[in-house]
Amino acid sequence: MIAAVRTAEQVPDEELWRRAEARSVAAAALFFGDVRMIKNVAGRTRSTSRNRGRVFGLLRVRRPWLVIAARDALSLRRNPGLAITAGVFVAAAFTAAVAAIDRPIFGVGTFIGLYAAASRLLEPVRLEADRPAAHRMLPWSWGTGLALHCIVPTITLTALGWAAIAVVGIGGFIPGSAVSPLLAIAPFAAAALVAPAATSAVRGPFPVETLISGAESSSLILVIWLVVAPVLAAIIANIAFSILRPTLEQGITAATLNAAMFLTAATLGVISWLATRKAPD
After folding, report:
1. Which pLDDT value is given to residue 226?
2. Domain that holds residue 36
3. What span, in angstroms and rounded, lies between the C-alpha atoms of 25 and 118?
């Protein structure tokens, strides 16, 4: 207490104002049961404290449509914990995948880990949903901006997937002939996971008011709110893997191309729907 009093005069007014604002927002979010807002406030507080005094140069882009991707890359650089957490999820997913060779039930864990990694990397989309007016500074519609936010998460998830495939391949956990088709399909699979996860990230905070309204359909609405995006991603992933699996140990074959084409079509379908979204009032 004495140390806090002595150092209080050294704290900048801006920092005191930021802390007071964070406490107010966190208290309001706690009152309304908005867990995501509490997490965002805590994350911004930690990020501000960690990056104080550090200078991050803006990335130069020659194409206007890469502005959002450059901003997301800078955000990922400022908050590397997102990529680290996603890497942990990917490692857990591939651990489950190795276990699924003998026990197929562990394949569920593979999907959960990869979907969780994709969701973790989509924090910029959640922030965009929380501040929909920010898109007015850009020349695109809100939905198009959301679609462009998927570029960096897809690239990051692909890189993490390639690293995991290399590790399990070098370790001898999968046949060597299966490494090349997995590496080839990884970018398409990453995009097919990121797109549904983005539709989930943009849905907004958990509708607690629906749960406490007492309406007969409130439980069904909440279930749909929670599971639509993961179920869609699971269906896409299951169909693609069923196409790829029979010839997986034969290297890159026509099945690899068919799986990539299916994942591309599914991703474009979800992204097209995402691009049509309108900013909430």
Report:
1. 77
2. 14-51
3. 27
